[in-house]
């Protein structure tokens, strides 16, 4: 422990006497020599000052304000406040002056009418997060990662450090992906961060199928689930919405420790059930799956069946019956080759591939392949095409198989089941044709489009 010296509190005499008293202070901080009260000096209030643990006597000379703050924090120089952080109550030392200069909450805590006079316990923040918080407070350091950024946002919100809140939100906006979008949406809703919430919903709308199938979806609050399912631009099949909501309801039953029955599933779904658009489902799926699950009443099933056959006159249900207006009504083709010829390229002898990257985030709907060389094939035939989309780590993002009629058309369109959001990264599309054939080819290809 650092040694301490007793320093006189209030001096009642004139400046001349005050200066004379302080001239007699021990030269070396931490000398542990109690100061004698001279005649004329008033009552003393002991103040503990931590000793400087470094041999660098003139450490201030070569440092600006932020670097000096960092040096004092890391070396515990003259700290006057102790925190006990986390459940393990780790001791962390800091400076009141710095904290109250950066946070209105700390100002009220340390200077208000009911100010803290002893150590401060903060059990709801982990020590690593609080250390990162202090580094920003003291010298603007900001180096979050996927594990600390949301607890750091919570801490910044709790202590009203708006500049740190902005940095955390901006970081999250740029890091939204399939694995974290639900968790970020939940935090954005909890902290009323409208722009971050909008960014999450935009991602979910474009990746609806993948998000609803992800394990994190069942952890969303009812409020956030409602927010997702009310989006008209949500790009997802209604059958997938139904399966996702069944999984969500099952998880809710498990959390409440209640039986997994159709009645209980409907009960925990509540009004969320009415956000599923049953009448736009495939009729056979509704008959085989939905009708057998008993989430709907008999009257509701009859009404939806009659809707399938156009015989309904009065709909007493609360379900919506219009398809979602997915935001991919138009598409644009990006062509490397604007010219082609009938030169034969033998396709199907192996795996063909093309690697590409985008200059900005965009949505990939599918790809184009050339048709057969018309002078070689007199009749059209069906060929099985297998396409994969891989990311930089060779992880498969899409894998589909399509039957294509290989006629003499110049280009054939192969669309994915769902659009894929592409970031500014390298991707690879591979293609394998089951039946070898000769196809057209492009010429004078571009390196960028």
From TrEMBL:
Domain of life, source organism: Eukaryota
Assigned GO CC terms: cytosol
Coiled-coil residue windows: none
A biological process from GO: neurogenesis
A Pfam family annotated for this UniProt entry: BTB
Localization of this protein: Cytoplasm
Keywords carried by this UniProt record: Cytoplasm
Entry-linked InterPro entries: BACK, BTB/POZ_dom, PHR, PHR_sf, SKP1/BTB/POZ_sf
Gene3D superfamilies associated with the record: 1.25.40.420, PHR domain, Potassium Channel Kv1.1, Chain A
All residue ranges annotated as the BTB domain in the record: 79-138
Protein name as annotated: BTB domain-containing protein
Phylogenetic placement of the source organism: Eukaryota, Metazoa, Spiralia, Lophotrochozoa, Mollusca
């Amino acid at each position: 422990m650092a040694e301490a010296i007793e320093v006189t509190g209030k001096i009642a005499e004139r400046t001349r006497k005050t200066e004379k008293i302080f001239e007699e202070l021990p030269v070396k901080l931490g000398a542990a020599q109690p100061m004698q009260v001279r005649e004329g000096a008033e009552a003393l209030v002991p103040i503990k000052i931590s000793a400087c643990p470094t041999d660098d006597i003139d450490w201030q000379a070569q440092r600006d304000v932020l670097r000096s703050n960092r040096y004092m924090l890391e070396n515990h120089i003259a700290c006057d406040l102790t925190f006990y952080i986390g459940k393990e109550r780790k001791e962390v030392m800091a400076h009141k002056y710095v904290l109250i200069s950066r946070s209105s909450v700390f100002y009220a805590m340390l200077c208000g009418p009911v100010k803290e006079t002893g150590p401060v316990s903060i059990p709801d923040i982990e020590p690593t997060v609080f250390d990162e918080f202090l580094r920003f407070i003291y010298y603007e350091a900001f180096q979050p990662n996927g594990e600390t950024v949301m607890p750091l946002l919570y801490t910044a919100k709790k202590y009203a450090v708006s500049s740190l809140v902005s940095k955390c939100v901006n970081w999250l906006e740029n890091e939204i992906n399939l694995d974290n979008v639900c968790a970020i949406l939940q935090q954005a809703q909890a902290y009323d961060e409208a722009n971050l919430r909008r960014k999450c919903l935009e991602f979910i709308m474009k990746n609806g199928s993948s998000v609803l199938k992800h394990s994190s979806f069942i952890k969303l609050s009812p409020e956030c689930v409602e927010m997702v399912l009310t989006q008209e631009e949500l790009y997802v099949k209604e059958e997938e919405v139904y399966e996702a909501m069944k999984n969500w309801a099952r998880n809710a039953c498990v959390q409440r420790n209640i039986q997994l029955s159709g009645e209980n599933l409907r009960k925990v779904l509540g009004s969320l059930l009415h956000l599923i658009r049953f009448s736009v489902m495939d009729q056979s799926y509704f008959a085989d799956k939905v009708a057998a699950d008993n989430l709907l009443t008999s009257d509701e099933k009859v009404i939806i069946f009659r809707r399938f056959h156009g015989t309904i006159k009065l709909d007493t249900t609360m379900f919506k019956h219009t398809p979602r207006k997915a935001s991919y009504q138009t598409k644009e083709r990006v062509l490397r080759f604007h010219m082609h010829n009938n030169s034969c390229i033998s396709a199907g002898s192996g795996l063909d591939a093309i690697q590409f990257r985008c200059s900005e985030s965009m949505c990939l709907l599918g790809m184009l392949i050339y048709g057969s060389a018309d002078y070689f094939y007199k009749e059209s035939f069906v060929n099985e095409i297998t396409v994969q989309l891989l990311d930089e780590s060779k992880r498969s993002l899409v894998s589909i198989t399509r039957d294509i009629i290989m006629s003499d058309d110049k280009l054939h369109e192969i669309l994915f089941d769902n659009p894929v959001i592409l970031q500014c990264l390298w991707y690879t599309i591979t293609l394998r044709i089951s039946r070898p054939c000769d196809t057209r080819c492009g010429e004078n290809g571009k390196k960028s489009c």
